[in-house]
Request: fold
Amino acid sequence: MRVALVGAGRMGGIHAATLSRHPDVDSLVVADIDNRRARAVADRLGATAAPSVDEVFNSGADAVVIASTTTAHPGLIRQSVRAGLPAFCEKPIGLDLPESMDTVHDVRAADAVLQIGFMRRFDAGYLTGRGLVRSGRLGRLHTIRTVGADPAPPPASYLRISGGIYRDALIHDFDMVRWITGREVAEVYASGSDAGPSMFGDVEDFDTAVVVLVLDDGTLVAATATRCNGAGYDIRTELCGESDTIAVGLDGHTPVTSVEPQRPRPPDQPRRSFQERFASAFEAEIDAFLQVARGELDNPCDGRDAVEALRVAEACQLSQQERRPVRMGEIPGF
Reply:
């Protein structure tokens, strides 16, 4: 296959490396609005740098991977549709809910292919957890608890374009909850704090947030996120049922130290980044996309899934602003 990649930043570099070593990819073309950055990634991997982003869609590619800044996603998805190219796009589709919904309408009207990059759907632990929940092994699921913790804040320049902690970080948890349970979110209450580094308050974002979700079957979800977890990168989900409780992301690298007299050893090497934690999942989602592009696999995460996760993030933002629970019926949807 001939694959084009748009965006040669942090996520673009991850996907470029995966594509360059995939046995089904014969050639890789890399583009970025910063042509020097595109050339640097292409040269490092033995790929080709396109002279411009627009040229990618006339390069003879069989599929396109979009890893640009989020604000560019809708336009690039539409270019892919017009070019007849199956597209993989990093989450979210966009920062604006109406535009994201319009983009998905355009994709569906053209009967085009769009897969969204929620990589946790391809992580071995999350896949096992979902299977156990769906099998009934846990009994009635009554509580879900999620932890999302970055060891250090991202650059201030990134915060300005990220969309905020609900759309950028917790949106993964919102997607996970829907995917694992097969249920929809009915109500949201969210609260955030910018008591950490001043750059969060400067861009009206939060360094730490807590969200309570009520699912349509009454299951309760407590989702937490912080950008300031010096102990290490920590992504966990606890799934609590009447018959059993399981944890995803709890292993010898989990940056949590017990203070009990009889306690397990603290982690020797806590993970420091999402790239390390989800390396296998990133490879699996790209492999799945190539199969989807060839018509060999049903789409594991389409645009409607992305919009539903974004709707929950929008409800969180409204709840934070108005300091009240928000029913999902208040947020426009399909």
